[in-house]
Write a structure and sequence with these properties.
single chain, 360 residues, alpha+beta, Tubby Protein, Chain A, 2 domains, 12-stranded antiparallel barrel, 7 helices, Tubby C-terminal domain-containing protein, F-box-like_dom_sf, Tubby-like_C, Tubby_C
């Protein structure tokens, strides 16, 4: 909005009254489409925007996806956030939506889109905030998934550093931009944040895929109750070199809960593995308990759980961090939770679309 509105009566409302009004709006509108009012309030003027940024909590604490930066922040701790993916097979495009009801298919709230691009030696899935603009040069570009030639190993790249304390790792796919266009505090490029691999099925018999996912940007200790996963707090546009204030959230309460001991501790990275399916004698197929969220048997269906630090205990039923399954010809559910983000979950699910018969 124009800064001239700062002189309007909206900006001159008493801060105590304004905060009370915005608090009530935030607490009463937990889901879309009503949640758009919260975003509209952040666009009135700078004063309103600053207060909204203080009030709106990240998905880990609120279970709400409000601003685009929420897509890069860990999901809720207590439950899976329900989403779904629509596939356009003709254009090799995939659309991620936030479920607005308990139904397996509804209109949903659009979150992300991805398009498949074949290369001579690999395959890229460009991930964008804009359903109609999915080029690498787009301002809406936020990352990508890249596979090897066989489609058995994948790397997830983030367009920004995953968090403030992350170490920069050079990538052959990093794109250099004019340094005058980008703030040096937020370098733009492709930063590898996770790796997904599928075991080759050398016997040739069809069966459940075996997945192994390493989240380099999240320590293994993040799944423990007293620890907090690192998170992005702002989103910068590469071609403009500015940070969208609407995309930011106030993470003071999150940063304060991260002790100095955690910052200095060198932990192993988070490792996710798919839960083993069980053979159903009567149905003559491999089965997983998706609690009604999956209705069609498919080799693409999976549930990922964190590998225990000691490497011995088996994941429990309620330890599922990401589940993905088919409910229609081109419709799939995607449910995720802390410590991964919607962006990371979406990229992992895209790898399931890309794998070849060598893994099945």
């Amino acid at each position: 909005m124009d800064d001239g509105l700062e002189q309007s009566w909206w900006a001159n409302m008493p801060h105590e009254l304004l905060r009370e009004v915005l608090l009530r709006i935030e607490s009463s509108e937990a889901k879309w489409p009503r949640r758009r009012t919260v975003v509209a309030c952040a666009g009135v003027c700078r004063t309103w925007r600053l207060i909204i940024k203080e009030i709106v909590k990240p998905p880990q604490l609120s279970s709400n996806i409000t601003f685009p930066i929420s897509l890069k922040q860990p999901g809720p701790r207590e439950h899976l956030l329900q989403c779904f993916i629509r596939r356009n097979s003709g254009t090799q495009t995939y659309y991620l939506f936030l479920s607005l009801s308990s139904a397996l298919a509804d209109d949903g709230k659009f979150l992300l889109a991805a398009r498949k691009f074949r290369r001579p030696t690999c395959t890229d899935y460009i991930i964008s905030l804009d359903a109609d603009d999915m080029s690498r040069e787009s301002n809406a570009y936020i990352g990508k998934l890249r596979s090897n030639f066989l489609g058995t190993k994948f790397t997830i790249y983030d367009s920004q550093l995953p968090h403030a304390r992350a170490k920069m790792t050079k990538s052959c796919s990093t794109k250099l931009v004019n340094p005058k266009q980008v703030s040096p505090k937020v370098p733009i490029g492709n930063y590898p944040v996770a790796h997904v691999s599928y075991e080759l099925n050398v016997l040739g018999s069809r069966g459940p895929r075996r997945m192994h996912c390493v989240i380099d940007s999240i320590p293994a200790s993040a799944i423990e109750p007293e620890w907090v996963a690192p998170s992005q707090t702002s989103y910068s546009v590469s071609n403009i070199g500015t940070s969208f204030p609407f995309f930011q959230t106030n993470s003071t309460h999150m940063e304060n809960s991260i002790s100095g001991e955690q910052n200095n501790k060198t932990d192993d990275v988070l490792v996710l593995r798919n839960k083993a399916a069980r053979w159903h004698e009567q149905m003559q197929c491999w089965c997983l308990n998706f609690h009604g969220r999956v209705t069609v048997a498919s080799v693409k269906n999976f549930q990922l759980a964190a590998l225990p630090v000691n490497g011995h205990a088996e994941p429990q039923e309620d330890d599922v961090i990401l589940q993905f399954g088919k409910v229609g010809k081109d419709l799939f559910t995607m449910d995720y939770r802390y410590p991964i983000s919607a962006f990371q979950a979406f990229a992992i699910c895209l790898s399931s679309f890309a794998t070849t018969v060598a893994c099945e």
